[in-house]
Amino acid sequence: AYEAGLIRKNPCDGITIKRDRNKLTKEILSLDEIKKLINTHYPQENPDVQRAFLLTLFTGIRFCDVKQLTYRNVDYTARTLKFTQSKTEGHSSHSQVIIPLSDTLVELIGQIPEGASPDKLLFNLPSQPSCAKGLKTWVRMAGINKHITWHCGRHSFAVNTLSAGANIKTVSSLLGHSSISVTEVYLHVVDSQKAEAINSLGEIGYEVKNPNHKIRSGGKKSEKSE
């Protein structure tokens, strides 16, 4: 409106947006919590929703990409999962992602059904709201007191792999980030977790006595200090 001359003053003048790029606002699932999820079953569970979310936890794939994966994206010979990210397609040279598949991930994906088209979806997922509801129920049934969304799976993958010692360039490539600076936010979470682990040990409670002993010029302790 200002540029078109409809108003005299630009309402955005003097306004700045402050954002802490090192702060991760989403919850993270630890490896122990992921094990809880895997071992939690209930009558109304949706196996496809659970399998799809586990794939995000172990590959970092976004929900918008998981729901579109087909058997054509899986190369069982090379044991890789190859796809183009919906979010960055046409906007980034890093939009195409290739993820190596372990035995566990191949088993999670499963083999293409006999006679099925390669364009068959890997997961028969309901609507996004239904997937969100199913995940929420699964997390609650597992006794995990966290607000977990589908995107938390991507964040959990990044933090857990970095915590395990993975190279940040490798993690950045797996996530399809256009720059390592985008991935660095997870390093701050890992460093924070390390500090929390040390602080969780509590106080030592050891009293250091006579830390500064006086030494004579000859290299011997004085009788007083002894």
Instruction: Sum up the overall morphology in one term.
Output: globular
- Return the average pLDDT rounded to an integer: 85
> Alpha-carbon distance between the termini?
83 Å
* Class based on secondary structure composition and strand pairing: mainly alpha
Strand adjacency order, main sheet: 1-2-3
User: What's the number of extended β-strand segments?
Assistant: 3
Q: Number of helix segments?
A: 8
One letter per element, helices H and strands E, the order comes to: HHHEEEHHHHH
Percent helix, as a range, is 25-40%
Biggest beta-sheet profile: 3 strands, antiparallel
Question: Which regions contain 5 or more consecutive residues with pLDDT less than 50?
Answer: 221-226
- Indicate the proportion of strand residues: 5-15%
Global Rg: 26 Å
Structural features, described:
- There is one protein chain.
- The chain has a three-stranded antiparallel β-sheet with strand order 1-2-3.
- Helix 6 crosses helix 8.
- It has 226 residues and is mostly helical.
- The C terminus is likely disordered.
- A hairpin with a 4-residue loop joins strand 1 and strand 2.
